[in-house]
Amino acid sequence: AAARAMLPAESWMQFPMRDVAEQMTSLHSRLFRAIQPRELLHKAFLDAARAPNFAHMTEHFNRWGQWCATEVLRRERAAERAECIVRLIKVAGHVKALYNFYALFAIVSGLSMTPVSRLRRTWEKVPRKYVSRFELYKKTCDMTRNFAAYRDELAAAARHFATVIPFIGVLSKFLFGVEENPTRVGEHGDQFNLTKARLLYKQVQDVQVNQCELRIDDIAELQLLLERIQPMTEDEMRAVSRRLEPPDGAPPVASPPPATAAAA
């Protein structure tokens, strides 16, 4: 707590957005490299006890998305919220260029959360070119046709021999689908399902190929900040969002009174 108090909450915005994206990617790469092959097989990824590193990365994805929404919502003025959104969209562009789809999906998820997406006055202050960029990133993360746009991005990355940090949700979805196929096939169940084995082998191999260490120089102060993100709960986000921009026709919601020191 003491270390966190040394860094003002907005200090990530004082760094170049490329640096923020690189330090995010460095942190996310460590999470990804910790996943063991056994965590990807026999539906182990569904059980945190059997796949602790996979579960840890999944939990962190949710926290990163909530953090993005929190960073927008904790700013009182619409112009400040719009500037935060612009900065996060810039970070999204940089992490996409770094093939960190884990971070890209998290940022898109966070900015698409209802407490943020409903802030009409805020989004009106976001320059059109950044709104357009965000729409493009949303298309990359679109679930349509089994994440076809995202799978196209992965194929393009493979052609460039790029190191990828994948979106963990699609990885688990694919693995689950493969595992649903029988291990034994044939009229009497006496034949090994080679197709299933090949698909699982290729997926594990793809993960391992991308688990190499990235050449990113650490920025200790920025990494310390990003490691200690403290997102609001979803209930807190909803309440803050309604206070900042009340629904049409609703009376304004008063800001909470400043905290006072307890009497000695």
Order of helices and strands: HHHHHHHHHHEEHHH
Strand content: under 5%
- Percent range for helical residues? 55-70%
Number of helices: 13
- Structural class assignment: mainly alpha
Q: Average the pLDDT over all residues and give the rounded result.
A: 90
Shape: elongated
Largest sheet: 2 strands, antiparallel
Spatial strand order of the main sheet: 1-2
Terminal CA distance reads 23 Å
- Overall radius of gyration: 21 Å
Low-confidence stretches: 1-9, 257-264
Count of strand segments: 2
Q: Write down the oligomeric state.
A: single chain
Describe this structure in words.
The chain is mostly helical and 264 residues long. It is built from 13 helices and 2 strands. It has helices at 2-5, 17-33, 52-73, 78-97, 101-112, 114-117, 120-124, 128-140, 144-159, 168-179, 194-209, 220-227, 234-244; strands at 184-185, 191-192. It has a two-stranded antiparallel ribbon. Strand 1 (184-185) and strand 2 form a beta hairpin. Helix 2 packs across helix 12. The chain starts with a helix and ends in a 20-residue tail after the last helix.
Concise account of the structure shown:
The chain has 264 residues and is an all-alpha fold.
Topology of this protein?
Elements: H1 2-5, H2 17-33, H3 52-73, H4 78-97, H5 101-112, H6 114-117, H7 120-124, H8 128-140, H9 144-159, H10 168-179, E1 184-185, E2 191-192, H11 194-209, H12 220-227, H13 234-244
Antiparallel strand pairs: 1-2
What key phrases describe this protein's structure?
single chain, mainly alpha, 13 helices, 2 strands, elongated, disordered N terminus
